[in-house]
Amino acid sequence: MVLVLSLLVFAWLRALPGGPASALLGDRGTEESRAALSKQLGLDQPIFVQYFRFLGRALTGNFGNSTGVQPGDSVVDIFLQRFPATIELSVLAILIAIAVGIPLGYLAARRRGGLFDNFSVGASLIGVAVPVFFLAYLLKYVFATKLGWLPSLGRQAGDIDATRVTGFFVLDGILTQEWDAAWDAFVHLLLPAVALATIPFAVIFRITRAAVLDVLNEDYVRTAESKGLLGTVIRRRHVLRNAMLPVVTTIGLQIGALLAGAVLTEKVFGFSGVGEALALGFERRDYPVLQMFILVAAIVYVLVNLLVDLSYALVDPRIRTR
Amino acid sequence: MALLEVRDLSVVFERKGEQPFTAVDKVSFDVEPGQTVGLVGESGCGKSVTSLAIMGLLPRRGAKVSGSVRFEGANLLDLSDKEMRDRRGRDLGMVFQDPLTSLNPVIPIGLQVTEVLERHRDMPRKKAMVEAAELLDKVGIPDPTRRLSEYPHQLSGGMRQRALIAIALACRPRLLIADEPTTALDVTIQAQILALLKELVRDMGTALVMITHDLGVVAGLCDEVNVLYAGRVVEKAQRHELFGQPRHPYTYGLLSSIPRLDAPRGEKLVPIKGSVADNIPWTQGCAFAPRCPNALDVCVNVTPAQEDIGGGRLLRCHNPVRPEVAEEVTTA
Ligand SMILES: Nc1ncnc2c1ncn2[C@@H]1O[C@H](COP(=O)(O)OP(=O)(O)OP(=O)(O)O)[C@@H](O)[C@H]1O
Ligand SMILES: [Mg+2]
């Protein structure tokens, strides 16, 4: 499967108009200088030759060097250096989405048709409809530029000299007990994470609400009521537990979709993660970076869904025993 | 004093932009301690709504309940949510129609039994587990200790209904309401479940309200029978009297549409013609009139009152089946 993916990614990238040579040289490049650069990059070869070269090197862990994002640097190094940033951002974003989406979805279902329900359903509709980059700019403008509450760019303020251990800035700060660094890194995460969380939040909210509404009408909830159980027990044990089944699947899908959002969000907030590299990679037609990053993203996506399937089995005994 | 006294119980559903719909219309009946009372009628006549109203399980919004439901003297309709929760599961148990959907699919059977014991009998989890195994054993589930840790999908439909009966009877309620407990099961299992219910209520001295559309169930189980039509009781009688001499044309029709083994070959079953869709509202006349073979002009113009026809029997009909004719359908 990974092989098929790699082929698809490879072919798709080559099909994009414009090449690294023109991107690197810009409009000033002559026909000759372009050809020379292409040759130097091995792009004059037939595409399948290029693919097998790429594959052969990839199998040994060599994905080549960047041509546009950080020219000359090894793609693997660039990835390793940026990956923790994106993970930090995504984890915080999905946590926000879950922590806000599930309780609100549950409340909206309980007060179905009420003011709160209508308001939050409306808000969640806007949440999915507004483009991420627009929201990101808006947040940045209001909270960073206008109010000045939060930083607008980067992962860490320049005047903080933090020790790096793992590359996860918040974690580093905690490990080294450099609390100011940890806090500063966290504050830098907030705006991009909120922007990134919007869509998953809206989706999780809506799925939770719909699932709770469904479950409230189930016969087993009526059975639970007929036993005279306390409201809290019915809600936790009987309603929420069942309503979580579709929500778990949704969370998995949303984690997968986060990367797309991360490309835009990281770009807006100058957050040097994988997403930003991808965005730059597209602008500069940096094939080595794009190839590896997209491939890894696809693999991560597959792994996340595998994890989701496994955790689904944890909550649903019908899948466990079959 | 009766254990349960239902008086003029009415349930009106209010629906947005539509006429309010009266699903249960001034229904009255009594249940003595240990007695089994049947509520019989075809689909949609208000049987389930009646039982949910007694249990206080109707949706709070959209359903208007009036009349009174006295249980050991206290009107259940006046109780607070908390007081009702204290009684449900402890004094009043209920078994529902569909065992496949009435158990929570994601928690083990054991917990679904023990949670009611923990709630009403203050049992610690361990002790409740032992008790739960005994309960499952009592309702005829083999290997009960292993079953406690299994999930509903691992049990057959019949087993699940047994488990639900165990849950409903866990706290030895004085009243059990069974709403078509066998409808979703196949015939041999139906008979087993009915036999089980009969045995359990006898042993525990539990009163039973048996809801069914199946007169066969009534014949085997009930002391007294209320026949419901379109939300009203149209005939009430002791079981043997009802089966020996059905007076309401609807009851008569129900009984003659049951196949009989001893019927002469070639004798046709007489189904009740039409459907509930033909009903006229009770406020105008007799709801059954459009389908009734005995209907007179008066039936579509004047609402029949409920009359006492002696022997503890009640009847709501302008032109009942004559006793001589009625005796011919005797099946039980
Ligand atoms: N929540 C509700 N809102 C509106 N109408 C309802 C509601 N519940 C029941 N009804 C209506 O009340 C009437 C009686 O329903 P009920 O469920 O009591 O029938 P039943 O006698 O139990 O039938 P069955 O044999 O099919 O179970 C039906 O016409 C039904 O449509
Ligand atoms: Mg029903």
Structure description:
The complex is a heterodimer of chains A (322) and B (332). Chain A is an all-alpha fold. Chain A has 2 domains: 2-59, no CATH class; 81-269 and 302-320, MetI-like fold. Helix content of chain A is 76%, strand content 0%. Chain A has 14 helices and no strands. The radius of gyration of chain A is 24 Å and the shape is globular. The mean pLDDT of chain A is 80. By secondary structure, chain B is of the alpha/beta class. Chain B has 2 domains: 4-227, Rossmann fold; 248-261 and 269-331, no CATH class. Chain B has helices spanning 47-55, 81-87, 109-121, 125-138, 144-147, 157-169, 187-204, 215-221, 239-244, 249-256, 297-301, 323-326; strands at 4-13, 21-31, 36-40, 63-71, 74-75, 92-95, 175-179, 207-212, 224-229, 232-238, 307-308, 314-315. In chain B, strand 4 and strand 5 form a beta hairpin. In chain B, helix 3 runs parallel beside helix 6 (157-169), helix 4 (125-138) crosses helix 6 and helix 6 runs parallel beside helix 7. Chain B is globular, with a radius of gyration of 21 Å. The two termini of chain B are 30 Å apart. Chains A and B meet through helix 10 and helix 11 of A and helix 2, helix 3 and helix 6 of B. Bound molecules: adenosine-5'-triphosphate and magnesium ion (MG). Adenosine-5'-triphosphate binds at residues 13, 21, 23, 41, 43-49, 59, 213 of chain B.
Q: How many domains comprise the coordinates of chain A?
A: 2
**N→C terminal distance of chain B:** 30 Å
Helix segment count of chain A? Answer: 14
The set of bound ligands, ions and cofactors reads:
adenosine-5'-triphosphate, magnesium ion
Number of domains of chain B: 2
SSE blueprint and pairings:
The complex is a heterodimer of chains A (322) and B (332).
Chain A: H1 2-15, H2 20-25, H3 31-41, H4 47-59, H5 75-110, H6 115-129, H7 132-146, H8 169-175, H9 179-216, H10 219-226, H11 231-268, H12 274-283, H13 287-315, H14 317-320
Chain B: E1 4-13, E2 21-31, E3 36-40, H1 47-55, E4 63-71, E5 74-75, H2 81-87, E6 92-95, H3 109-121, H4 125-138, H5 144-147, H6 157-169, E7 175-179, H7 187-204, E8 207-212, H8 215-221, E9 224-229, E10 232-238, H9 239-244, H10 249-256, H11 297-301, E11 307-308, E12 314-315, H12 323-326
Helix pairs in contact in B: 3-4, 3-6, 4-6, 6-7
